[in-house]
Design goal:
single chain, alpha/beta, Rossmann fold, globular
């Protein structure tokens, strides 16, 4: 998606290119999507959905979003950076895939999004749900970048562990990754719901399964 640095929500028509993709994972997804969309334009029935940032229960790995919740519950979130995410309830996201299969137009893509929130707003919601304090210290971008570089080097390369923060995640966080799902609402019957219920289910699931 063509996220901007000004906080304006991206939609399906927002300009985006391979050069905007940070890291091999996102580049590979972008390239695969282009192939799928081209197949759709050439006669194959292909409908693409772009979930924003799914949140909810049964996040076994956990995903980077789930790791935010787990780190918060473990007290490993002493500070935050000025960034933003669009959180989509994982249950609604699953229903959106079914709606795209049944109602989507071939060759089109649909953003399945939820609530646009700053990272601080997300942490405040987690605090209200869990009873734990929300961090009050905001890190400048250059400090977060340096911390990501150190963690990536020490944890990732030297100790062979998955780093909590990487240079790529910090670079992505420089933009508010907010999105609009108006097209999905018009064509798929998509309904945008607040993130609080999904965050609550995530907290309950991680605690019940001894992640935190």
């Amino acid at each position: 998606m063509g996220f901007t640095g000004n906080g304006r929500p991206a939609d399906e028509d927002s300009p985006v290119s391979l050069a905007d993709m940070i890291g091999h994972y996102k580049r590979s997804k972008f390239m695969a999507e282009q192939i799928a969309l081209e197949a759709g334009r050439n006669g194959m029935r292909v409908v693409t959905v772009n979930p924003t940032t799914p949140i909810g229960e049964q996040d076994i790995k956990p995903t980077p979003t789930g790791r935010i919740v787990v780190d918060f519950l473990k007290g490993k979130f002493p500070a935050y950076v000025e960034t933003g995410l669009n959180l989509v309830d994982v249950r609604e996201c699953a229903l959106g895939h079914v709606a795209a299969l049944e109602k989507g137009k071939s060759g089109e893509r649909y953003i399945l999004g939820g609530e646009n929130l700053t990272l601080k707003q997300i942490l405040d919601k987690l605090a209200a749900i869990s009873g734990l304090p929300s961090p009050k210290i905001k890190l400048p971008y250059f400090v977060a970048y340096a911390a990501g570089l150190v963690d990536q080097t020490v944890s990732g390369r030297w100790l062979g562990r998955e780093p909590r923060a990487t240079v790529e995640t910090v670079r992505m966080g420089k933009k508010k990754m907010w999105a609009s799902s108006d097209k999905a609402a018009r064509e798929l019957g998509w309904k945008t719901v607040p993130a609080e219920n999904a965050l609550r289910r995530a907290v309950e699931w991680f605690r019940a399964n001894a992640y935190a």
